[in-house]
## 1
Amino acid sequence: MDKYNDVSPFVIIKSDVTRRSFIYTDRALGALDKSKHQYQQRVLIGSNGGENAAVPVSLLLRDGTSIIGTPSKTAKNPYVVDQIDGKLYLTDQGEIVEEVHYWYKPDYYDKFTSSGTPMWQVASARPQRLDIDPNSHCHFWNKGNGCKFCNINANSTQSEKECNMSKQLTAQDVYETVKEALKQPGAFTNLKMSSGSILSGAEIFDDEVDMYIEMLQAAGDNFKDKKFPSTIVASAFSEKQLARLYENTGLMTYTSDIEIPNEALFAWICKGKHNEVGYAEWKRRIIRAVDIFGAGNVSSGIVGGCEMAQPHGFTNEDDALKAVLEEAEDFASQGVSVVHCVWVPMHGSAFHNQQNPSLEYYVRLAKGLSDLRKKYLLNVDMDNYRKCGNHPDTDLDRGNLD
Ligand code: SF4
């Protein structure tokens, strides 16, 4: 923090807690109030605590930013969330680092749709965003080519077993849950949908586009205007597919993740995407989306630090950072924001035994990506700290408003 005193300390803490992971003391878990806090959540990638354990779905920091994650049983050097004198703190080797709060749950959370589905299984609540993930199965895994950092199919199979949570949502459940959520004044400012990739259709991803159209129309039936604040995190669609999506739904912004901004490493880590579409075409499609959605309304996510996975990744942090920021600048110069999450070598992913880079790497990455948006005057409001909350670099963008 002394060395990077131009970076918010909350961003530094968030990055380190995410990369090292955290656990709760029994006292801290005792402070979870099931009537007030979120303790169950539908997540695509990551985990939900496992074994039906009631754990907070996330932590809120004093500046309003979030640390999104669940405790890891296998972390070697985790932070510890403890309750001390009635307050919750992140602690490291017994020392208090920062106060935290658990996320409150929204009013719709304990209600059910007319088909009997718990609404928390239809929509997750990020601080001010409704997250609806209509399909938790990714076809790239079918041929054994899921991205090596991802655990989507292992995670959704576990959730199906433990919580009886369906991998697919129905349009009617989506309509009813959004309707209920909107009854809470001021709670939500955006809606996000995401899904595992669906490769089928006359053209690759045609069926995925159809699924989003159906689900966005169901959500959109709750709004008076055709367009409503919304985003999707989806496969890289062709221009024809993007136009179909834009014209037939209320969708306003679009994300498709390049994941690893380096062609050779993408081919190794995201083999399915590379085999079916290819790095250059995946990138071209994201950039072409700017023609439809406008500069600043298209972003691409990267798994920050995964470019250092071994044995093929970078072995030097300076080289890795330089390569990532150069490619991110190429995107930014063409109207696309690159945002990162901290790579967590997760259970159920091929890379579960890997080691992520140093904290300093993540601080420089967050600053570098945020500075690029400043340089190219890109706004990434659809992924900001209140809507997504999972990107240290977009937390920093608040400073760009000065
Ligand atoms: S495309 Fe890759 S990152 Fe996305 S859900 Fe499928 S395996 Fe996971």
## 2
Amino acid sequence: MYYIKKFLLIVIFFLVGCEHTQDLTRLEEQKLPIQTSFKITDFEPATDCKSCHPVHYKEWSGSMHAYALKDPLWFSLQKKEQAHFSAEGKELGQFCIMCHSPVAFLTDAIEEPSSFSISDTSKYAPQIQEGIGCSFCHSTTHFSPTTDAYPAIEETDIIEFYLNTGDVKYGTIRNPISNNFHESEYHPDYDNSEYCRGCHNLTIDGQGAEMTFTEWSGTAFEAMGVECQSCHMATYAGYAVDKDQFPEAPYRENLHNHTFAGIDQALTFFREEESQVTAIQNLLKSAAEMNFASPLPDSLKNGETLELSVLVTNSSGHNLPTGTTFSRQLWVEVTAVAGGDTIYRSGNQNDEDDLYDFHINPDGTEDPDLTLFRTVLYNAEGDSGLRQVAVERFVRKTDTTLPVQGSRIVLYSFSVPDDSQGNLDLTIRLRFRALPPFFVREFGSGIEALPLNIFNIAELTETIPIRSSQ
Ligand code: HEC
Ligand code: HEC
Ligand code: HEC
Ligand code: HEC
Ligand code: HEC
């Protein structure tokens, strides 16, 4: 549906003059003001918006944007990296803070980033604690370019935000009704992927680190006007404000969901957990497809080898997975059961819920066929993996993520035992979870983390009769 709607919209934009390819060198020609210094009180806390925008507030309050400075993993990883850089005589500064709490970054609020810990947060203003909040996003006037950090030469906290935190809140309502809390102004760029680029596109010393915007650029999605917002801020009809307080508020067909669902969920007790899970499940329905790449036999004989080939195709708007691809787990699980016995499996978990990947089973003997779609980062010493290497100091990576509309064939081969009878039941699932459990155990600041959900994106099942070979 949104493809058609969006396409029409984009055509109209072209007719009236499109902002889509805005060039930053043209910033000065833009009439909107650009603020250069900030204080905390320039931003209102999200709770100030709650009474008039209860739906937007509810959706946002369970989002990862609202959790960005609450994640215990963030605190322990940022401390670990700060320590690593200090040990090398370098400074990491506000590198981790700039995208996770832009208000803290802009106001230079965190005095000692190197020792910033989760117990310190309560002494800071809510605008800082709330990560990426309403008034930050709705003061944006111009696109941020891609964020290119150079830790090698200590150029790390360099994100460019262009804001005007005056009385105006910008958005994509063309004819907003007035209220006595803020002025409202239509801003066409809020509907474009470039709006998300500054935080969702990071290079490190010239290498792609978290490249969601770049992955999306140049694809058929971009050509069709399917932006980040089309999939991550799905439209719905309703009222943009509380109808009781604003009886004159018009019914609008084009409001935008603010749950910002992806794959990640809060690791600790947080808000709106159920609706986040539902939003993730709904998003993941359109993430990928899985099919048999070659026909299965009508029957199998004892001792016969089954060659299984499975085609996995990405249908999301960027690589699958995207962003923090080094810590995601997207994998194929295959289970074959003959006459009640499991005769083959891959992609299963151990007692601690971990996959047998190289972190857990370095010699690869437990699950030699394990297929994971992800990146693995390597440091200058040649070490690899989440324990050793972090995104701000990798020199090389391997990449098995699926590009946009890209497919991969995964092969499995196993034999039917001589004594099996009945049927061979095959179950193949494409599974996804935000993080490997060992990583949370080892780097989660000792927190009792909530169980990590595993989402099934696609499933294939097949029953093949076993014919006895005599
Ligand atoms: C006193 C009530 C009130 C409060 C408080 C309030 N708003 Fe609004 N806001 C409104 C009304 C009314 C509209 C117009 C709705 C419409 O026309 O459908 C609006 C519209 C908006 C728009 C759309 C602007 C456009 O033209 O696209 C944004 C964005 C917005 N508000 C953000 C915020 C944020 C962020 C906060 C908190 C810092 C906030 N509002 C607090 C009443 C309020
Ligand atoms: C065609 C729909 C579509 C578009 C367009 C799209 N996404 Fe996604 N996005 C998805 C789906 C489906 C998922 C879940 C599967 C996955 O992780 O790729 C997802 C996941 C994500 C995740 C978290 C998942 C991860 O793998 O870590 C982030 C962050 C994200 N998208 C950001 C963006 C940004 C930024 C843009 C614009 C540059 C964008 N998306 C454009 C559909 C889309
Ligand atoms: C990450 C940035 C971001 C955050 C955080 C955010 N918004 Fe938005 N908001 C947007 C964008 C982008 C749009 C327009 C989307 C489009 O048109 O495609 C929007 C649209 C709106 C609108 C216009 C009506 C609609 O639904 O389109 C209102 C009102 C609004 N937001 C209020 C809020 C409030 C209140 C909060 C906090 C509780 C909030 N926003 C948090 C980015 C953000
Ligand atoms: C100020 C920086 C910033 C901006 C602007 C921003 N994001 Fe994010 N976004 C983040 C950070 C940081 C996280 C991760 C928070 C966490 O998990 O701790 C995130 C998380 C997400 C996630 C969830 C990822 C997951 O793994 O589930 C989605 C989806 C997402 N953003 C989409 C968007 C879209 C769409 C836009 C543009 C409309 C946008 N973001 C703008 C910083 C930003
Ligand atoms: C350029 C902006 C940017 C910077 C700088 C940044 N992050 Fe993030 N971070 C993001 C975005 C965007 C996401 C969500 C991406 C996704 O889900 O794929 C994220 C997600 C995360 C997550 C949650 C991901 C998960 O796997 O559940 C953690 C933890 C995190 N970042 C830690 C850090 C640390 C530590 C640093 C500094 C060493 C840092 N970030 C620097 C933008 C940034």
